[in-house]
What we know:
about 15% strand, Rossmann fold, single chain, 5-stranded parallel beta sheet, Rossmann-like_a/b/a_fold
Amino acid sequence: MNKEEKQVRVYADGVYDMFHYGHARQLEQCKKLFPNTHLIVGVCSQEDVEKYKGKSVMDGYQRTESVKHCKWADEVIYPAPWIVDEKFLNDHQIDYVAHDDIPYTTADVDDAYALCKKLGKFKATKRTEGISTTDIIGKILKDRHKYLKRNIERGMNRQELGMGLWEYYQLKYDWLFCQGRKRKQD
């Protein structure tokens, strides 16, 4: 086996909530860092996500299953540590850790990837502009009433949607009023 054929074990970690094409592109970049990359993807524990980032939409099982179904991932670790240490790198025989190069301040450290950078085991990836879990959640919240209406029309009840009785009837009134106004304008 020559040097180009040597398998390189690359580790990428994240929350991967509401897995989207930005996540997939990150993993694709990681997979393509070397000609023969074995990509290990760490999905952070639910406990750590809630402690350091806040509530996630998907639970740990759902986030892990989403990553497992991404064609770029060869191996998935759950729960993955919030911050990688030397023991974790050695235990999993990780050659490189890949993440975007912006220092990730968390858990009382200035950069969660500082150790990997110091050890020369860090490879930078680029973020995909225009997509993030935060943006998706923001869009859903902005159009909340449209999504509530959509799900009610599909048979969900107000309790399943976490709606109080007052909110439910207020929305029903608004929908009826708006539809009546729209018909008169047509």
